[in-house]
Amino acid sequence: MPVTDVSHDMDTLTLTIVAEFAAPVERVWQVYADPRQLERVWGPPSYPATVVDHDLRPGGRMTYYMTSPEGEKYAGYWEIATVDEPTGFTFDDGFAHEDFTPNPALPVSHNEYRFAAHDGGTRATYVGTYPSADALQTVLDMGVVEGASSAINQIDALLAP
Fold first, then answer.
1. Are the C-beta atoms of 25 and 86 separated by less than 8 Å?
2. Are 28 and 122 in contact (CB under 8 A)?
3. Where are the membrane-spanning stretches (predicted)?
4. Residue 85 vs residues 36, 131, 147, 159: alpha-carbon distances, Å
5. How far apart are CA 50 and CA 2, in angstroms?
6. Per-residue pLDDT tens for 68-93?
7. What digits encode the pLDDT tens for the residues 118-140?
8. Which of 17, 41, 62, 123 is the most exposed place for a label (fewest CB within 10 A)?
9. Has domain 3-159 been given CATH number 3.30.1450.10?
């Protein structure tokens, strides 16, 4: 299991997930830079993702939807803020309506993904910051820890030679 630590802090409004992969930083970066690879690991295994648009550049946007076992689709988007290939990027992650317009009824988090060489592999640190304690609690209640952890844990299989 790549996820080694999960914590949330209601004072700093953050959710932090740390994972380690037996692959170089550049290979982990490719998972996020390639939409076909990303959709294999974005979302829990029972809610596979389909990436519709993918522009991993500052000012770029990524849109996707996850499909439930019953066939329901849940849309989301990333708005890319910064890119520091291959060591990380920052973006806002939000829920969307079916046409990928933002759904303001649900929280938007600001995310920082960092990838660093560690013990011959990569340590990934995923930090999501929420605008309020209520927003963080909303996603915790929706199962973001379990969903994100199960999604990240799929990366090892993708990275296997």
1. yes
2. yes
3. none
4. 18, 27, 26, 18
5. 23
6. 999 999 999 999 999 999 999 999 99
7. 999 999 999 999 999 999 999 99
8. 123
9. no
